[in-house]
Amino acid sequence: MLHPAPTSRIAPTLARGELADIIAPTATRPGHVVITFPNTNYRMHLIPTAPISTPVGKRIVGTIRATARRVDLVDTGGKFVEPVYGRPRRVQGSVLGGDDHSCTLIVDAGMPIHCTMTDPRQVPSQFATGAMVGFDVLDGATFTPQ
Question: Pairing mode, if any, of strands 59-73 and 15-23?
C-alpha cells in the first residue's frame, strides 16, 4: 500500500524516513536503528551516532553516512540500496554533490547517502552532478538524527 509522501520541504541531503525499531547491542553486533522510507520496502539497519528521541513509528529526519570501497560510474540500472532489509552493502544512485576536502560524495539512491571515499585515487570532483555511480559499502553505516 502506498502511503502519502511527505510534503514539507527539507534539505535534499537529508534522509526522511520512519523509525521502525531500535535494536539494543548484543555481544556480536552494535546497537542499531531500523528505518523505513516512504513508498519503498527498505528497512535499513543503521548505527545511530546520537541518542534517538523519536518514538518508534514516527517520522525521523537525519543524515545517512557510509564508507565506500571504490566508486564507479555506471551506465545502466536505477537507484537502489542492497539488500532491501539489513545494513547497506551496495548502493547505486545519482550524484547530488560532493566535497573534496572531506572526500565525501552525496548520492541519491532513493534517499540521500553521504559516502566517504576510501580509494586514494578518487576525489568527489571526478563525478559530475547527476552522474550515476555505484559502490560497495563497508560495515558500519550510520544515521545522525537532525
Answer: antiparallel
Asked whether residue 28 is assigned to any structural domain, the reply reads: yes
pLDDT of residue 7: 67
The answer to whether residues 52 and 79 belong to one domain is no
Q: Give every CB contact of residue 122 below 8 A, 6+ residues apart in sequence.
A: 70, 71
Residues 9-33 have pLDDT tens digits of: 888 899 999 999 999 999 998 999 9
pLDDT of 6: 61
Distances (CA, A) of 85 to 22, 60, 137: 15, 18, 15
CATH number at residue 107: 2.40.50
Answer whether 85's CB lies under 8 Å from 34's CB. no
Residue 113 phi/psi, 5-degree rounding, is: -125, 125
- Look at the alpha carbons of 139, 61, 18, 48 in this order and tell me if their dihedral is positive or negative: positive
pLDDT band at 87 (very low <50, low <70, confident <90, very high): very high
pLDDT value, residue 77: 86
- Cα separation, 24 vs 104, in Å, equals 29
Residues 102 and 38 in one domain: no
Q: What average pLDDT does the segment 81-100 reach?
A: 96
